[in-house]
Amino acid sequence: MKELIHQLPNNFLQKLRKLYPDRFESITSTFLEKKIQSFRINYTKTDLTTLRQLLSKNRIRFKELDFPKGAFLLKTPLSQLQKTDIYNDGLVYVQNVASMLSPILLDPLDNDTVLDLCAAPGAKTTQIVSLAPKVHLVAYEKARIRYYKLLTNIKTQGAGNSVKVYLGEGALVRKKFPEYFDKILVDAPCTTEGRFYIQNPKTYKYWSDKKVKEMVRTQKKLLGAAFFALKEGGELIYSTCTFSPEENEGMVDWFINKFRNKLTVLPLKIGLDNVQPGRLRWREKKYDQSVQLCRRILPNEYMEAFFIAKIKKLSS
Ligand SMILES: C[S@@+](CC[C@H](N)C(=O)[O-])C[C@H]1O[C@@H](n2cnc3c(N)ncnc32)[C@H](O)[C@@H]1O
């Protein structure tokens, strides 16, 4: 079974070994198994007491997590949950637990103006509304098919009144919404290394060093635009589901240097033990000290690898 790992791109494996020399075996072993599925409550439609009762009544077995609040591991097959009204009426959203962290750390409040710059299929868009039903949310998505999926999910989750959705290039927010948002989520397109699953070559066949560079270019474009759309004093979450430091610490380092003295990295409190500080070095690069305030989420049996940074705009 372990040898199957060598089906992954060789350059990726070499990079991962350099990144995590002591954890290489345990991390690669997470690519061999499907993750335990998880879901979260949709507060727009129900509360925790009612949801627990409905799950039990429908014979859905679950484990409720202490952190994040409102997150559940699914102990019955997903197909069984999908047959219930709980799922079909949008009382829950099936979502990886690591992905639930970005909206929680963004901390949206009622009446905040919030931008979700890379929104489809809408796990985090709908989570933002679930956390703050009276938020004024703008969501952008560039890919047409994914945009329609986003619209469907917003409808099922009952989030439509709080979100205005745009199909198009996210970088346009720079001109369309100058200094407009209190909070911005940039859940960036990335090489999705945290989602590699050995039985599904589609999850990793596209990977190459060139792809990493291509993603970095898109991430710079989106983060750069987000700076101009954020109000002075506003806060931004940048997240990816990839290991690659170029797309993670490297991006944050680029961002705070591009807008020198205008941005600061904020500390993050995450109540989990599979969490590491951001790296200060990668290959020949040495990053700004504050990059260690970012957090790497290490994968486990139910969490994908993830990276999160919180950045405050000090001045325009
Ligand atoms: C990591 S996924 C977002 C996942 C989503 N936030 C969620 O939690 O469901 C990144 C998304 O960004 C979109 N995207 C890529 N480039 C974009 C761009 N230039 N402007 C807007 N969206 C873009 C992709 O099509 C993809 O749907």
- What global shape is seen? globular
Instruction: Note the run of SSEs as H and E.
Output: HHEHEEHHEHEHEHEHEHEHEEEEEE
For the record, give the distance between the C-alpha atoms at the N and C termini, rounded to a whole number. 53 Å
In the predicted model, the low-confidence regions spanning at least 5 consecutive residues are: none
Number of domains: 2
Largest sheet report: 9 strands, mixed
Bound molecules: S-adenosylmethionine
CATH superfamily of the largest domain: Vaccinia Virus protein VP39
Oligomer: single chain
Task: Give the mean pLDDT.
Answer: 98
Share of residues in helices: 25-40%
Number of separate strands = 15
Brief account:
With 316 residues, this protein is of the alpha/beta class.
Summarize the structure in words.
This protein has helices at 10-19, 24-29, 48-57, 78-82, 85-88, 101-106, 123-131, 144-156, 173-176, 209-229, 249-258; strands at residues 38-41, 62-64, 71-74, 92-94, 113-116, 136-141, 163-167, 181-187, 230-240, 263-266, 275-277, 281-282, 285-286, 295-297, 306-313. The termini are far apart. It is of the alpha/beta class and 316 residues long. It binds S-adenosylmethionine (SAM). Residues 99, 118-124, 140-143, 146, 169-171, 187, 189, 218, 222 line the site of S-adenosylmethionine.
Topology:
Blueprint: H1 10-19, H2 24-29, E1 38-41, H3 48-57, E2 62-64, E3 71-74, H4 78-82, H5 85-88, E4 92-94, H6 101-106, E5 113-116, H7 123-131, E6 136-141, H8 144-156, E7 163-167, H9 173-176, E8 181-187, H10 209-229, E9 230-240, H11 249-258, E10 263-266, E11 275-277, E12 281-282, E13 285-286, E14 295-297, E15 306-313
The chain binds S-adenosylmethionine.
The site of S-adenosylmethionine has 20 residues, from helix 7, strand 6 and helix 10.
